[in-house]
Every structure is written in C-alpha cells, then in structure tokens.
Amino acid sequence: MSVATSVRAALKSALAPVAANIYDHVPENPVAPHVSIVPDDPYFITETIGDATVRVRVNMTLAIGVNYASNAASLDNLEQLIISVLANIPNGYIVGEVNRPTVTQVGSSNQLVADVRVSTYYTKP
Fold first, then answer.
1. What is the dihedral of CA 17, 35, 61, 11, to 10 degrees?
2. pTM of the full structure
3. Is it the case that residue 37 has pLDDT exceeding 80?
4. How far is CA 107 from CA 28, 34, 96, 103, 104, in A?
C-alpha cells in the first residue's frame, strides 16, 4: 500500500462523519466548509536507515476552512469544525498544534482557515 491509500485516504475515511467537504489532496478550489489533507514540512522523517524496511513519520496539515462573512459567526463555525475534526482523528495519528485562523482568498471568495498539524507512521517492507 502507498502513503496515498494507507495514510491520506485512511484519514479521509475517518473524517467522513465531519460536516464538511474532505479532500485527501491539495484541491484547486476547495468548497467551504472543508478539510484538506496536505503535506507538511518536513513531509517525511526517516525512522530507519540501512534496513530492508522503510519506516517514516508522515507529517501533514489539515487545512480547515469555512466561509468568511461575519467574523464572530465565522470564527464560531471554524471552532466547531475543528472540534469535530479532532473528535474524529483515528488512533495512530498524533495531533499537534492548531494554528491561529487567518482570512484567505480562495478563488473568488474569502475563507477563514486554520491549520491543524497531524502525523502518523508509514512502513513499507
């Protein structure tokens, strides 16, 4: 199995109950509300060297966005969405920090977006 299927697709499936569009890649124009699973920096951290088995820590960012119309309402919507995402993170994933929300232009609309850092391990024999 690849990182795409055993890591990103698995996380996307776990987030299916969240009331948002879930993307396991970088979408051209995400439709809000959305959660986009994108590579973080560093993306892979090698856990093994010189072994027949490759083990890496895969670092990702969950870019979580909602429509931005009213600051108070948008912030509340984003906070509720973040809590819903955190409640659906599967076992085996490590949740890091949640960055402060920023207004970001996506296509022709403004969205309030916050990043949540997550990581997990991938082993390729």
1. 30
2. 0.92
3. yes
4. 9, 14, 28, 13, 10
Q: Where are the alpha helices (DSSP H) in the chain?
A: 3, 9-14, 71-87
Domains of the chain are: 3-124 (3.30.70)
Task: Give the Cα separation of 76 and 62 in Å (integer).
Answer: 18
Q: How far apart are CA 99 and CA 36, in angstroms?
A: 15
Q: What is the pLDDT of residues 45-88, one digit of tens each?
A: 998 767 778 889 999 999 999 999 888 999 999 999 999 999 99
Q: Is 74 exposed, middle or buried (0-12, 13-18, 19+ CB in 10 A)?
A: buried
Q: What angle do CA 86, 46, 100 make, to 5 degrees?
A: 35
* pLDDT score at 49: 67
